[in-house]
Amino acid sequence: RAECSPFFLSLKTPKDESGFRIITPTPKMIDTSEFVESLLDRMSRFNVKPDTIAYRTAIQAWAMIGDGNRANKCLQKMCSLFHQGKTWVKPDREAFHSVLRAYARGPKTPETMNHCYELVKQMQDFHLQGGWDTVPDTFTYNTVLTCLLHNQHVCDAVNQAETLFHENMDGLRDTTSYNILLEVYGGQGMASEAATLLEQMFDEHQN
Prior knowledge:
Helix content is 67%, strand content 0%. It has 207 residues and is mostly helical.
């Protein structure tokens, strides 16, 4: 397994317009991610406490191959342990972002957006409960927008994207946010809406 690190470092796959790599995992890639996650159990057997960094690494291993469900499973275990009083396994924003990144990179299903919205809600709840730095930010919402952009199972993608963009991203929108929504409009042939959004983008930039 000595090749694990260089394997991930050398992973090169196509990117979509939002900068996320489109992943089609091979058996070797899946096997490598399985190995990384298995280290958590090995650490426990040797009385070594897996901490936030250890769990985050396992989550990122699944994120790199676009397996959102496996990444989310690791995250939820992490959250459960933290709620049991194991404070050294505190979920952080990067852990949540890695799961969202996994859903953005991987294959989309009818449940993908539900998982994304639940993760955003969970981030908000963690922040409100203890003041932890898990409040959703620009990257959070841009990643959810990317999942909408590439999910063919969503019937009202435009409505959901507009709601996120206008109601949840006040003060958080950046160029990437605008570009993703422009792509959503472009995919639906909504030229007038795209032109209006482009004007808004220019106005916001000037102000």
